[in-house]
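Posting here for the record, re: D-malate.
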Amino acid sequence: MPKFNENYFHLKESYLFSEIAHRVNAYTEKNPDKKVIRLGIGDVTLPLGSEIISQLHKGVDALASAETFKGYGPEQGYDFLRNAIVDYYHRNNVTLHPCEVFVSDGAKSDTGNITDLFDTDNIVLIPDPVYPVYVDTNLMNGRNIVYIDANEENDFLPMPDFNVHADIIYICSPNNPTGAAYNIEQLKKWVDYALKNNAIILYDSAYECFITDETLPRSIYAIEGAKKCAIEFCSLSKTAGFTGTRCGYTIVPEDLTFLSSAGAKISVNAMWNRRQTTKFNGVSYIVQRGAAAVFSPEGMSQCKMNIKYYQENAHIIMNSLTKKNISCYGGVNSPYIWFKCPNDMDSWDFFDYLLNNAQVVGTPGAGFGKNGQKFFRLTSFGTHNSTIKAMERIDKLF
Ligand code: MLT
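Prediction output follows.
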């Protein structure tokens, strides 16, 4: 009889967004005449930019002729895309070498896959509330997690306690779900902490393209010393609307080295490369062609137009909630609006209440951790019309 990884039994029965989909499906089956507006999962609604589409087509055409056909590609990604990503970082004043860039099928996969590199016996520090993938993937491996509170008192930006030791630290900035973003000084404290504790930071920058305050860092490598202590995960899902197309990248600096238990120098870049070449065969050539177009001047300007559209939605949501005296966070450097549930409701109760009475779907804060118990998240990735309609419906309820 196979022995299973019983750590799975410590997980919640279903993944947060599967649970939401399940409840919404049950509701729509019972109420087929009701028009539900989905502002729950952060899934984009605008089509890909025309420059990306045109390059995707060229990628398809290349596969149609023997001269340009592509079979297996490099597991780390094609050079044309790795170089385009290096240039993108360079424009944001961060210097990388292409061998530090690993093209992935998204930040969700790699923030989970990275746990392969670490022993069970690590102290893992994770903010609460947080993107549930960090917690679930560590629980799957039987690791102990130490939570650090993100709450209204610290503006949802917890800072390191130098008296508490951690080996692995998760940071997401701009944050999912709260929308809070660390400034340079705050992020530097985390880098200092990691360097002092010989710890590694797993930095999720999936929402960097939503930063409007130009003084805020878009990459942890904007902080001196970060290449010695941090891996960065990014995604084109929100930058360029690749939620369905799937493409992201993980930066593992060559300077990121630690000592093994036997005292040998470990290159995390080499270890990740070993993991990827064994378990991953790369993102399809077609998708990588489209992804490279994101970083071209034309492609980037089209992506920015889409981002602006979503930022207008964020504005609509925030205005409407603020008018109702509902305290809300995020929305400025982030596509997510995080707010206190009205009338001190618990977040899953509020979820059901909104679904049943306004046919609006959001994400209950409790799904992101105990500190989200009384909070709720709306996404700005809907259409203008659906966002306006959702806020009109919510407006009528309170
Ligand atoms: C979210 O809604 O939190 C994200 O879209 C989920 C994800 O990126 O996997």
